[in-house]
Amino acid sequence: MSLERSIRMLIVEDHAGLATNLLEFFDNSRYVLDFASDGLTAIHLIATNEYDVIILDVMLPGLSGFEVCRRIRSDIHCSTPVIIMTSKDQLQDKEEGFTVGADDYLVKPFNLRELQLRVDALYRRKAGFSRTPEIGIPGIHFNPGTFMVRTDNGKQLELSGMAARIFEELIKAYPNFLSYTELQDRVWGEREVDMNTLRTHVYSLRKLLQDTFQYPMIKTMHGRGYRLLTPHQDS
Description:
Elements: E1 7-12, H1 16-25, E2 31-36, H2 39-48, E3 53-57, H3 65-74, E4 82-86, H4 91-99, E5 104-107, H5 112-131, E6 135-137, E7 140-143, E8 148-151, E9 156-158, H6 161-173, E10 178-179, H7 180-188, H8 195-213, E11 218-221, E12 225-228
Parallel strand pairs: 1-2, 1-3, 3-4, 4-5
Antiparallel strand pairs: 6-7, 7-8, 8-9, 10-12, 11-12
Helix pairs in contact: 2-3, 4-8, 6-8
């Protein structure tokens, strides 16, 4: 599938050798690159520019990549797809990355071609969101272009990253539920994602929705999967 326009990308990496390799590998007309070697610079660039994909190292001077990701999601409300890259390969590290809002997690060392494939996939997914019209069910509306959830009583919430993708799949499936496997396949595609990662994402999304809309919008169908509840349904 060809890409219609250049992909604007921010690379956040403090290791000079890897940063040079990344900048050289993506140095062609298909990509427009910005670079930051620390977390504060990255946050400033993200707050003042529009990017299609962010590649974010974890071990940065000052703020860690996890903290940068958390801040751009919660403070700047930036929904740009983020790929975390790190040598941290434990499950709890991956859970932390996804919990703070990362869309993908790549463990070092990795093949640059694999990173490129993931960048392109996230870009296509983001572009697809922007072309999708608003989705509505009784009492709830979701705009995949802006990641905004709103209810008929006027409350609204802007989602980001993986939370937006999970919510879109759940609202598309309403009134049916999505099994664990169906949700994994629709959100992560052919990539293998363990059940703890899925549950962590859904738990974080459920809490965010309940804090905003004051009712349990996502119901767990024990042993089966998840479904959305409208404001007038019992949990």
